[in-house]
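// run 5 | inverse folding | seed 20
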C-alpha cells in the first residue's frame, strides 16, 4: 500500500493552498461545535515516519479549534510500568468521551513497527498486534466513534536530512531517538512493515490517508481536507463496520435449571478446609507476583447469592498490596460517554497482581439487555466483543476465571427477608433487588445465553452451587488455586 503510493500534483500554487487551508480550518471550527452537539467522539490518529511532520500536521489541524473540546496526546514508547499491562490498554484508556476530539501523535501502528524493527516482536507477535488493532478499531466504530487515520510519508533521504538537522540543534537534538535512527538505517524494512500494517488495517470505514510529508504545505492542506470530509460524512451518517462472523471454541454449559443445588459443607469441615486453602493460596500469590502473572476474576450471580462472602474469604488469604476488589455499579456519566468496555480496560491489573470484579462487563448482556439500557444490536454484538476482550487478556498471559453463583428463588427470598429483618444487614437490600426478582425468568434466559456464548477454554465460566454458602466459598477457592497452579 505505502510502497506503491505516489503523490499526484494538485495544480495549485502556494497562495491557493494557503487560501484553501484557511477555508478548511474554518470548516473544522464549525464542525467542532456540531461534533459536540451530536455527541460524536472523534479520534484522529496521525502516524508516519520520524521527522515526517506529524506534530506540524496536528498543530495545523487544531489551529482554529476550541481547546476545551479537544486533546492532543503524544504516544511515546511504553514505559516499563505500561508494559505490565496488555498492549492496547494505554490506547483504550485515552479514548475521548462523546462530543470531543482526540489527536494522537503516533499510535499502535508506530509502536508495533518500532518494536518489530528493534527485534522485540516476532513476526507472529507483530501480526497478532495488528489483529488486536483491527479489533479495537472495529469495536470503537461499532459503538459510534469516528476514527480518522493519517500517515505522513517521506523518502529515505528527506528523513535522514531532517534527522541530521534536528540533531545539530541544541534545542531540537532531544527530539531524535534511537528508534528514529534505526528506522532510517533500515528504511526499506521499515517501509515494508508500515505498508503491511496499513494494508491489514484499512477497512472501508477507517481508511488510511497518506500525506506527502516532503511538502508541508500540501500535507497541511490534505490533512485538513481529509479530516473535514470525514467528519462531515459522519455527521450526516455514521458508518458502522459489518459484524464479523466468529466461530469461537466454546465449552458446553448446562442450563441453570439443570444445576443441582444440594451440595453442602458442615461447619467443622469448612473451617479446616478454609484454613488449608488460605495457606496454599497465599503461597501461590507470592509466586505469581514473582513470576509477573496477572489474574482477573469476575463474579456474577443472583442478588444475595453470596458474591461478597466468597470474595471476602478469597482475599483473606492474599497480600493486600497485590490485589484490588472492584465493585461495579451503574456507569458514571463519564463512563457512559465512552465505549462500555473502557471502564474495565482502565481497571485491569498489572503483571503479578489480581483484580477481582464484583460484577463485571457482563452487565452489557444482562441488566443492560433486560432494562433496555442499550439497543438490541449492541448487546447482541457484545458477546463477540467480550470474547475478544478476554482473549486480549489471556494472550497477554492473564489467568481469567468467571464465576456465576447459582441459587433458586426460594433461597433468594429467604435471604432477602433475613436482610430486611436484620438491622445491620438492611443496607444490603434495596427496592431494585425486589424489582429485579420479579424479572427472574428474563434474567435466567439472558444468563443461560451468556454462559453458552462466552465460556471459552482460556476464559471459562464456572457455575457455583451457592445455596450453601460454605460450599460455594470453598469451591471458588479450590478453582482459583487449581487455575493458578496450572498457570505457574
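// decoded
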Amino acid at each position: 500500500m505505502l510502497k506503491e503510493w505516489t503523490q499526484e500534483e494538485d495544480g495549485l500554487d502556494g497562495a491557493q493552498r494557503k487560501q484553501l487551508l484557511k477555508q478548511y480550518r474554518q470548516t473544522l471550527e464549525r464542525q467542532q461545535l456540531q461534533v459536540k452537539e451530536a455527541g460524536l467522539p472523534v479520534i484522529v490518529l496521525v502516524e508516519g515516519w520520524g521527522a515526517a511532520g506529524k506534530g506540524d500536521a496536528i498543530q495545523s489541524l487544531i489551529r482554529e479549534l476550541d481547546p476545551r473540546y479537544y486533546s492532543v496526546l503524544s504516544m511515546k514508547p511504553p514505559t516499563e510500568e505500561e508494559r505490565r499491562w496488555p498492549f492496547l490498554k494505554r490506547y483504550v484508556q485515552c479514548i475521548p468521551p462523546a462530543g470531543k476530539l482526540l489527536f494522537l501523535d503516533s499510535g499502535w501502528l508506530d509502536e508495533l513497527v518500532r518494536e518489530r524493527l528493534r527485534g522485540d516482536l516476532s513476526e507472529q507477535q507483530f501480526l497478532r498486534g495488528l489483529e488486536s488493532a483491527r479489533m479495537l478499531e472495529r469495536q470503537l466504530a461499532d459503538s459510534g466513534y469516528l476514527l480518522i487515520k493519517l500517515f505522513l510519508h517521506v523518502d529515505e533521504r528527506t528523513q535522514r536530512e531532517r534527522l541530521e538537522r534536528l540533531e545539530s540543534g541544541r534545542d531540537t537534538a532531544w527530539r531524535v531517538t534511537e528508534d528514529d535512527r534505526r528506522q532510517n538505517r533500515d528504511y526499506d524494512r521499515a517501509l515494508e512493515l508500515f505498508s503491511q500494517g496499513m494494508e491489514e488495517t484499512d477497512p472501508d470505514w477507517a481508511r488510511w490517508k497518506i500525506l506527502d510529508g516532503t511538502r508541508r504545505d500540501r500535507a497541511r492542506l490534505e490533512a485538513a481536507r481529509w479530516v473535514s470530509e470525514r467528519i462531515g460524512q459522519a455527521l450526516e451518517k455514521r458508518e458502522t463496520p459489518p459484524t464479523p462472523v466468529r466461530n469461537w471454541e466454546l465449552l458446553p454449559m448446562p442450563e441453570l435449571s439443570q444445576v443441582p443445588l444440594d451440595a453442602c459443607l458442615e461447619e467443622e469441615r469448612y473451617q479446616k478446609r478454609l484454613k488449608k486453602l488460605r495457606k496454599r493460596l497465599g503461597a501461590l500469590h507470592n509466586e505469581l507476583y514473582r513470576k509477573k502473572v496477572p489474574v482477573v476474576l469476575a463474579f456474577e450471580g443472583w442478588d444475595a447469592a453470596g458474591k461478597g462472602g466468597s470474595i471476602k474469604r478469597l482475599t483473606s488469604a492474599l497480600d493486600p498490596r497485590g490485589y484490588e476488589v472492584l465493585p461495579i455499579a451503574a456507569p458514571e456519566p463519564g463512563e457512559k460517554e465512552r465505549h462500555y468496555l473502557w471502564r474495565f480496560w482502565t481497571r485491569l491489573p498489572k503483571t503479578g497482581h489480581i483484580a477481582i470484579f464484583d460484577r463485571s462487563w457482563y452487565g452489557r448482556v444482562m441488566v443492560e439487555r433486560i432494562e433496555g439500557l442499550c439497543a438490541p444490536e449492541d448487546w447482541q454484538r457484545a458477546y463477540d466483543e467480550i470474547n475478544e476482550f478476554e482473549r486480549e487478556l489471556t494472550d497477554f498471559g492473564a489467568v481469567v476465571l468467571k464465576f456465576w453463583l447459582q441459587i433458586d428463588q426460594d433461597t433468594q427470598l429467604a435471604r432477602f427477608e433475613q436482610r430486611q429483618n436484620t438491622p445491620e444487614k438492611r443496607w444490603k437490600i434495596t427496592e431494585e433487588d425486589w424489582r429485579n426478582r420479579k424479572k427472574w425468568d428474563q434474567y435466567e434466559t439472558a444468563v443461560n445465553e451468556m454462559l453458552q456464548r462466552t465460556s471459552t477454554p482460556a476464559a471459562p465460566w464456572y457455575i457455583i452451587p451457592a445455596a450453601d454458602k460454605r460450599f460455594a466459598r470453598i469451591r471458588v477457592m479450590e478453582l482459583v488455586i487449581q487455575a493458578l497452579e496450572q498457570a505457574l
